[in-house]
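Dear Dr. H.,

I hope your travels went smoothly. While you were away I took the liberty of generating a structure for the chain from your last submission, since the lab meeting agenda had it listed for discussion. I wanted you to have the full record in hand beforehand rather than looking at slides cold. The sequence, exactly as received, is reproduced here:
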Amino acid sequence: MDPILEVVALTLGFLSWIMVGVAIPNRYWKVSTIDGTVITTSTIYENLWMSCATDSTGVHNCREFPSMLALSGYIQASRALMIASVVSGTFGVVCTLIGMQCSKAGGENYVLKGRIAGTGGVFFLLQGLCTMISASWYAFNITQDFFNPIYPGQKYEIGEGLYISWASGTLAICGGACLMFSCKFGTKEKSGYPYQPSRGTVYSASASRKDVQSTYGRNAYV
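The corresponding predicted structure, in token form, is as follows:
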């Protein structure tokens, strides 16, 4: 495996893992600005866990969603996918740290370390896919309601939490791809060596003739 690719993949995966942790508690997954009306509330924003509002004086009021079962299906799915993303990223960071060549963990068995690093790449890919699916599904519902002319409820726009999630998913997929390609290159280099048979299994023609002569002798042939 290429050590440079390992370092790049670990950096990308670690950054994506940190960004997932920033995106989950971010309150601005969807934002509705209603400035110019006669009511005092100026901005309403929500995420996966709560709904908040801020008035013209800058006072924030937040309330958590009362029941998980009463939420929309896409919010419940987005929650599960983001939690799965955090778990996958944690395993990806640990496996990559153990499988790196410059790491002392795992001993000197580089074949095993390469497989562990490849497993870390798979976890990073899972993290990126879960994050991208969660953010894209959430954004799809926002845009669907926004462009629906007969939608009776409050319309929202895409918030910064979704952009952070998309960036995190992109970095995770890039990091996982780097690890997978690094493992692939390492396999090709190992399989390129020519086959060399053991010296003990090579028999020459002269040795076989001597064995025949010593067994039968010179007078054995007419």
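Two observations you may find useful: The CA atoms of residues 14 and 178 lie 13 Å apart. The first strand starts at residue 30 and ends at 33.

With kind regards,
E. W.
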